[in-house]
Amino acid sequence: MYNIGIDLGGTNIKVGIVNENYEIVADASVKTNLPRPAEGIADGICEAVDLALKKANITLNDINAVGIGTPGSANRETGEVLYSNNLGFRNTHLGAMLKEKLDKEIYVENDANAAAYGEYLAGGGKGYQNVVVITLGTGVGGGVIIDGKIYTGFNFCGAELGHTVIEYNGRPCTCGRKGCFEAYSSATALITATIKAMEEHKDSKMWEIAGSLDNVDGKTAFDGMRADDATAKQVINEFIQYLGCGLTNMVNIFQPEILLIGGGLCKEGDNLVKPLKEIIANDCYCIDEKLLPKLGICKLGNGAGIIGAAFLCRMHE
To answer: CA-CA-CA-CA torsion for 55, 60, 62, 65, nearest 10 degrees?
Structure first.
C-alpha cells in the first residue's frame, strides 16, 4: 500500500505517492491558481492526485491514507484549516471536501509541521524522538516533534518559532511585532542586510560578485566572505550571531535531542554550522556537555513536506 502526501502552496499544489520506506515513487504538480474558492483548490488537489496516481500506475484502491500540509493553522482533529491568509481560508473544512471527492481518510496539518515530521521519519531527525526543525527561507519556519508527535499547542497554533523576539523593540516583523527571530535570521533578512552593507560600502567586493543590488541573494555575502571582503565578513558574522541566539533559545525551551536547520542557506555547510555549534555550546543551558543537543542539517529538501504529510495518519493511531 501507498500513502499520498500533498504540499499545498500559494503557487503550486505538489502531490507525491509515498511507499512504506518513505520513498516518493511518483509526483505531480499543478498551479494553485489563486485567488479561487476552497472548492476550486480542492478540485486542483484532486487533479494533481490523479496525475500522480497515473505516473505511479496505481489507483486510489492502492492508497491507505492522504495527508495535506497547508500554510496556516489547521485542526488535525477535524481536518479544518482554521486560518490561512495566503489561501484565503478561514474555518475551511478542507479535509471533509477532499474526503467526499477521494473517498479516503484525509489528514490536515500545518505545512512546516508536516515537513518537520518528514525529517523526523526519514531525514536528519531519523532515530530521534525529540526534534526541532528550523527552516531559513522567506521567513523562519519551524516544527517541533516531542516524543514522536507533532506539537501544536491546545489551539493548533503552537511552534511559530520565527515569531519569538530576540531583540526587544528591534526590527519590524511582518507579524506586527518588533525584533522577531525571523526579522534577523531568515534568508530575506540576510539579503536585506547584504544590500544595506553594499550601499554603505561601495568598495565592497560584493559589488563585483553580485553585479547589482537586483542580483543579491542569500549566497552573496558568503561569497564575499570567501573573497576576504571585510564588509561581507561583518554581514555574515552578525547574521550568524543572531541566528545562534535564536537557535540557543530553541535549545533552552525544548532541549531536543537534535536541532535541524533547513533552507537554501544550509548549502554553506560548515561555514554556517560550525560557528553555530560553538555559539549554542557556549550559551545554552546545559549542565552536562554529553547531553548537549546535536545540531544538524535537514536532509529531505522539498520532499520533507510530502513525506511528512503522507504519514500524518500516524498521529491518529
So the answer is: 110
SS3 181: helix
Does residue 256 contact residue 130 with C-beta atoms inside 8 Å? yes
Provide the pairing of β-strand 131-136 with 89-92: unpaired
pTM for this structure? 0.90
Give residues with Cβ within 8 angstroms of 80, minimum separation 6: 74, 91, 92, 93, 94, 95, 96, 108
Provide the edge-to-edge strand list for the sheet that holds 294-297.
Answer: 149-150, 140-146, 131-136, 258-262, 294-297
Number of C-beta neighbours around residue 154 at 10 A: 6
Model confidence at 291, in pLDDT bands (50, 70, 90)? confident
Q: Do the beta carbons of residue 117 and residue 312 sit within 8 Å?
A: yes
Q: How far apart are CA 230 and CA 221, in angstroms?
A: 10
| Residues contacting 102, CB < 8 A, separation 6+ | 46, 49, 60, 66
